[in-house]
Design goal:
The protein has about 90 residues and is of the alpha/beta class. The protein has helices spanning about 20-35, 70-80; strands at about 5-15, 40-45, 60. β1, α1 and β2 (about 40-45) form a beta-alpha-beta unit.
């Protein structure tokens, strides 16, 4: 079974000390996905309370440090049923 994800939310920023690096990484990912033909929504995560744009098919995690790399964000995406990049 092949699944096509057309609407990708790039989750970036965060609230760790690595926020600025994450914003740069996220911007680069957005550009690459757009050039590859995806519809992209840049989502600046500033707290644990956030929403994905309607119609999001999958999330690309570009958060570094706390919340982005400790499994908490991944658990929230799993709870919402949203496929995402990276490990669980």
């Amino acid at each position: 079974m092949v699944v096509e994800y057309k609407n990708i939310a790039v989750l970036m920023g965060g609230f760790s000390s690595e926020r600025e690096v994450s914003l740069r990484s996220g911007a680069a990912v957005c550009g690459g996905l757009e050039r590859a033909g995806y519809r992209v929504s840049a989502c600046d995560i500033t707290s644990r309370t956030w929403e994905l744009p309607g119609g999001t098919d999958a999330a690309f995690i570009a958060l570094h440090g706390t919340y982005g790399e400790d499994g908490e964000l991944q658990a929230e995406l799993e709870k919402r049923g949203v496929p995402y990049t990276g490990s669980g």
